[in-house]
Amino acid sequence: MPGSRPRVPAKFNPHPFAYHEEVELQIHSLTNLGVGVARHGEDQWVVFVPFALPGETVLARIFRNHKSYSEADLVRVIDPSPNRVEPVCPLFGTCGGCQYQNFKYSEQLVWKRRQVEELLQRMVGIEAEVQPVIASPKEYHYRSKLTPHFQKPRCGELSEIGFLKQGRRYDLVDVESCPIAMDQINERLIGVRADVRSRGSSFKRGATLLLRADKNTVHTESDAIAEEDVEGVTFRFKAGEFFQNNPYILPKFTSFVREQAAAGGNKYLIDAYCGSGLFGLTSARAFDQVAGIEVSEAAIDWAKANAKANGIENVRFINGSAEAIFQDVQFPGSETTVIIDPPRKGSNQMFIDQLQAFGPSRVVYVSCNPATQMRDLKEFLEIGYEIENVQPFDLFPQTRHLECIVTLRKA
Ligand SMILES: C[S@@+](CC[C@H](N)C(=O)[O-])C[C@H]1O[C@@H](n2cnc3c(N)ncnc32)[C@H](O)[C@@H]1O
Fold it and tell me: Which residues form the active site (predicted)?
């Protein structure tokens, strides 16, 4: 009812703001989660406001107070940033997938660079030069993989097929088309959605759908074999397994990793967490010998098959946990580069200890999660490495996600 008081959630902490209090705020920065940051009042209380941009004055509605900050929803932009643009997707702001469609692309890159600088200061305690972010050749329609979900049908009817709603843990938003996904994925999504809806009552629980585009088609079965060409190397892998999701930036990405890995003149390369062999195989031409290691048996079988099919003979792939590689190879550490590309949780102490004992002269650390990368970097600095280069890559335009390559050399 208009004018009626909002119902205050039972556990709401009323300090320093009342529930749904509206405050005018000046946004001064963006967190690495893509959320606008303001400071309010004399005590400079921090308020986080999603979809508000640096430099803007906004009206925001408080919905949660924590011990040292509050969270608010954007009600209205009072004074917009000159970098505010019209989002392409009608679901922007409702869907939790994208954070930056309202932000000029060149500014997204400026802020992603700044976020890496701030994480290096805050988590590693250093002021390191961060290179300008390398842009994706495509700002939209770049994603080669989409995984929409649906929940258990109610009364035999499926409701939304899509992604998590902004700020929610369970609620989904229905997505008919996603403008960051490749065109062929969106074309295929129409039929996939219709098919799932027509079988609505047969699902006993919710599920995640797969749409994986490769150089030939769009796969919807996770066991299907996908094929992708990168810098003249053909990769085959299972459609449901890990493979980088932005094929347009991939050649720049792999050539950069190779250049960084080979820059010290090393003869040997270890590709740790190698998946189906992306870095090992695209870098093999720059090294005498390469060894890759990966915990997924299926992925390592593909890596071996990919080496064979591409006639790359100086690469050996091993199935195991990454730290096992240091027992397995005979390479001298002083002439070896180690590429590390772990999952989002980062590397682990055992790996770092074994790497220290092996003593590679160069490490190229590739990560899609700067927070765990920074945690691990701190360890690398403590065991005698120094940072040579920090290069973010924008594999995920319009979103807060960021890929970062840090090159280290033994001090
Ligand atoms: C971010 S992916 C990178 C894959 C590959 N470098 C690429 O770009 O295609 C991380 C990989 O690490 C693997 N992985 C996870 N934990 C591992 C571990 N303890 N040891 C080795 N590999 C692991 C995963 O199976 C996954 O293939």
Answer: 368
pTM of the complete model beyond 0.90 = yes
Nearest CA to ligand 1 atom 17: 295
Catalytic residue check, 404: no
Closest atom, ligand 1, to C-alpha of 276: 9
72 ligand 1 Cβ < 6 A: no
Q: Is cis: bond before 251, omega within 30 of 0?
A: no
Q: How many domains does the chain have?
A: 3
Q: For a substitution probing ligand 1, which of 145, 214, 231, 242 has the most ligand atoms within 8 Å of its CB?
A: 242
Transcribe 265-330 into DSSP letters.
--SEEEEES-TTTHHHHHHGGG-SEEEEEES-HHHHHHHHHHHHHTT--SEEEEES-GGGHHHH--
For residue 257, is it left (φ>0), alpha (ψ between -120 and 50) or beta? alpha
- Ligand 1: residue whose CA is nearest its atom 26: 275
CB atoms within 10 A of CB 38: 25
21 is in an annotated binding site: no
Supply the range of the domain harboring residue 162: 145-219
Residue 3 has pLDDT above 70, yes or no: no
The mean predicted confidence, pLDDT, of the chain is 96
Candidate list 89, 98, 368, 404, residue with the active-site label: 368
- One domain, residues 77 and 214: no
Which of 231, 256, 294 maximizes ligand 1 atoms within 8 Å of its Cβ, making it the mutation to test the pocket?
294
| Region of poorest pLDDT, from 156-165, 170-179, 379-388 | 156-165
Same domain, 347 and 288: yes
Q: Is residue 184 a known part of a binding site?
A: no
Domain check: are 290 and 153 in the same one? no
Integer Cα distance of 303 and 189 in angstroms: 30
Taking the centre of ligand 1 as the mean of its atom positions, its distance from the CA of residue 50, in whole angstroms, is: 32
Summarize the confidence of residues 203-219 as an average pLDDT: 95
Closest residue by Cα to atom 2, ligand 1, is: 343
CATH of the domain at 340: 3.40.50.150
Per-residue pLDDT tens for 128-155?
Answer: 999 999 999 999 999 999 999 999 988 8
pLDDT at residue 364 above 90?
Answer: yes
Residues 56 and 150 in one domain: no
Ligand 1 centroid to Cα of residue 187, in Å, is 31
Residue 101 lies in a domain: no
CATH number at residue 55: 2.40.50.140
